[in-house]
Amino acid sequence: MCRGRTVVCTLHAHLVFTPKYRRGPFPDEILRPCEEVMRAVCADFEAELSELNGERDHVHLLGHYPPKVALSRLVGSLKGVSARRLRQEFPDHIRKYLWGEHFWSPSYFAAPCGGAPPAAVKEYIENQKRPG
């Protein structure tokens, strides 16, 4: 939960990134450095990467971020910085799976996490009406 002078919030997102062409460059020896890079990027945004895991052709992230951060900007930095750093650290391995300047697919999946389902929130708000 984040607290500021004018806000108390808890924003969590489940993100899924796939490499370009959905080719599988993610054995464990690359997934671990990818997680380290993404944790550092999140820290720069005052966000927190709670979990990262994946398979050879995609990665899942669970993150907590402050309301001042646009999720699309965070995603852009996560993908851009990780692509650059992984290409620098593992050039031969990455070149076997991906070619050209692309690492990640331009698309991604994002879903909010935590909190109550919308129906429960609606019911809660309806029950806040004053009698009379």
From TrEMBL:
Top-level taxon of the source organism: Bacteria
Q: Which Pfam families match?
A: Y1_Tnp
Q: Where is the Transposase IS200-like domain?
A: 8-128
Per its record, how is this protein called by name?
Answer: IS200/IS605 family transposase
